Amino acid sequence: MEKLEKDVPVLICKMEKNFPPGFFNPMQHLLVHLAYEAKVGGPVQFRWMFHIERALKYLRAMVGNKVRVEGCIAEAFILKEISYFSSVYFAEKHNVNAPTMRYNVDEEPSASDLPIFQSTGASASASSPYYFKPGERVSAYLYMYANMKEMDPYFKEFQRQNWTSKKQPRSKQLDKMRRDGIDGKPNFPDWFKIYKLTVKSIKTWFIYQRGGCPLEGTVGTMSMDSAFALPHLKPLVL
């Protein structure tokens, strides 16, 4: 500790040679006093004020009438003790000992069989209608398809039927082919609408597809309109 107390001023002088004056503030100068404070005050856990300041902040929040500070704190503590004691005799849900889960994670799962709709939760804010601009509808379809593992075989089949070069397409070429098509052929959403009518091996929830978006029939379908809703879920608006 004594060696550190002697070395700190030398180290700061060396720093002043390499850093501009604006770098130095009271925090850098504080290093000079840390070793002396540790020797005089002892371990920091016996002299720091962090937990005391947290406790004082908690007590100040209880004060509603600054004329009767002690009474406000006493009443708040009594109310807290009563609420904790009485909550033991109520149901396990919705009490101070077992608060409601955040972000609606305890909601019932979706009735859909598609994994993309299996995540629990709800929208963070109210939804509002949005009408697609040209090209955004296809982007929305492709974004949904890309996040569905069930669509991987159909992406491969689409590439096999439309990509004629011996070289594998680059990522940009593949995205452009799925979005705009190639050599006058339809893009992926339009191709899939035609493909589902000719192949009988597609699963049930793909047969209920409308407008290029597969959804389970019992949950709902996405039409070519910009806004859509699922009966078992909150309205989803892209």
Automatic annotation (TrEMBL):
Which Pfam families does this one have? Answer: DUF4218
Under the heading InterPro entries, the entry gives: DUF4218 (IPR025452)
**Which residues does the UniProt record annotate as the domain DUF4218?**
1-95
Which protein is depicted?
Answer: DUF4218 domain-containing protein
Q: Which organism is it from?
A: Paspalum notatum var. saurae
